[in-house]
Design goal:
The protein has six helices and no strands. It has 162 residues and is mainly α. α1 packs antiparallel against α2 and α2 crosses α3. InterPro entries: DUF2489. It comes from Kushneria aurantia. Keywords: Membrane, Transmembrane, Transmembrane helix.
């Protein structure tokens, strides 16, 4: 009887190990599926940001958007992609212009300004845009040329080489 008991315990142990292996395998597949879905969502969000940068870049190049406004909008998007990009050319100028324009009013706050205050701020915007025009246009060209891709390590390491 002890041999029969040992055999029964061996079979029970094998069944338990097989069941636990099955559970672990299912958990692994679910984790992998979630990871893949998460990666897909991240890439989708990054691509949306890159598409937005392209539109902003094209609008700036076509002079359909104020250059300072384009820098402010681009700054927010590049911050979402990778703030490190703002430390290197051609995006460094976006950070610089954004910092220098930080005190200027936007949106509802701008609408509440008197015409004289708005004119004074517009003068500052024009002066700022003129001072950095060439560098801003290079950054806009980079954005319009889609030199960033969502799947590229550029979002972690900077601009990819052409």
């Amino acid at each position: 009887m002890p041999e029969v008991l040992a055999l029964i315990l061996l079979v029970v142990g094998i069944v338990i190990v097989a069941a636990l292996t099955g559970v672990a395998w299912r958990q692994y597949r679910e984790l992998r599926r979630r990871h893949d879905a998460s990666r897909h969502e991240v890439l989708k969000r990054q691509q949306h940001c890159i598409d937005s940068l392209e539109v902003i870049g094209r609008a700036m190049l076509a002079e359909q958007m104020d250059l300072v406004e384009g820098c402010l909008r681009s700054r927010v998007i590049v911050d979402h992609l990778n703030p490190e990009l703002l430390r290197e050319e051609p995006f460094e100028v976006i950070a610089r212009v954004s910092e220098e324009a930080d005190h200027l009013h936007t949106h509802q706050a701008r609408a509440r300004l008197s015409p004289a205050q708005r004119m004074r701020e517009d003068g500052e915007r024009i002066e700022l845009a003129d001072r950095y025009r060439d560098r801003i246009m290079r950054a806009a060209q980079t954005m319009a040329d889609r030199q960033l891709q969502a799947s590229d390590p550029a979002l972690e390491l900077g601009l990819r080489a052409r």
